[in-house]
Known about the structure:
Number of helices: 8
Helix content: 25-40%
CATH superfamily of the largest domain: P-loop containing nucleotide triphosphate hydrolases
Structural class: alpha/beta
CATH topology of the largest domain: Rossmann fold
Strand content: 15-25%
Number of domains: 2
Number of strands: 7
Strand order of the largest sheet: 2-3-6-5
Mean pLDDT: 80
Amino acid sequence: MLQYTNGFDNSKMLLKKVNFSSATTAGMFQTSIEADIEKRQGKTFAPAGGRKMTVFLDDLSMPQVNVWGDQPTLELVRQLIESNGFYFLEKDKRGDKKIVENILYVGAMSHPGGGRNDIPDRLKRHFFTFNMTPPSQQSIDNIYGSMLRGRFEDYPALASWVGAITSATIELWLSVKQRMLPTPSKFHYVFNVRNTRTHAHTASTVMCALVLPPHVF
């Protein structure tokens, strides 16, 4: 997603990233959006300079669910997308609608379950949904096994350990991912396939330090 948005022409399209957490309130979200729009005419607001803006809503499912099963923060997101605006919070204008134009919305979230929330269907219906499944264990083994074999192809003594290191790395990652599940209060507990790269790099560095001569390492 961010690789695509990095190609935006800033003279025509702006990018705003909004990272949600269990602590994100409706007021915080509205204030964040209002910080990047300006008055056009009357009660109509839009991004500065006559440009459009794409808002990337990351971890969209993280706002806390209240005792009635609602997510007020996401209801405001839905209102903004659905009716192109929200309401003024200032005392002298409270109750008047603020129209927000020229904004596009893209969201990302983890699969519901295991301590992760879902988002309301009334919000979900406004998005085209793409389900990105993680690669299979065999695919991960092929990717990182190839990386390690390429690094140690000139050192047969180390190359023979590649299979064991790759398997151990994947097993560690799967174990951590299953036991340390994210929750609204521990939303940073997300262990994806990129973490295996760190493990593989650390393991290969230790192997080099233990086996290879200092001038080679």
